[in-house]
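Recap from last week: sequence in, structure out.
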Amino acid sequence: MVQLLGEQGMSSEEEDMMEVDDAQMLVYKVKVCIWREPSVVEYLRFVDAQAAVFRKNQSGPTPHPRVRTSMAGSSKAPCGLPQSLYSREWLRKQTPNYIRELKISKETFGLFKAATQRMSL
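Predicted structure tokens:
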């Protein structure tokens, strides 16, 4: 799914300093992709959490924490994704012309459907 979304389909981030345990630390504030289906967000959080588990077992610098925010990001919706990856609510607010420009794929994304159903068990 990450490959399908591509770089354009990722959340935008901004650097900020936060106090953690009485020390200033660089963090990345992750903004919301308003066009993205909410279950995609949950799936990507799951993927991030799994990646963090594997990263703990590797040497090298510790990555900076990523803090999710409710701020809307600047990432435009990528074209050609399966409809299930776009937010239904967001799509309803778009003009018919813009929806045509998105060239939404009619293919279903079965892997995503199966993965999100499995996560809710």
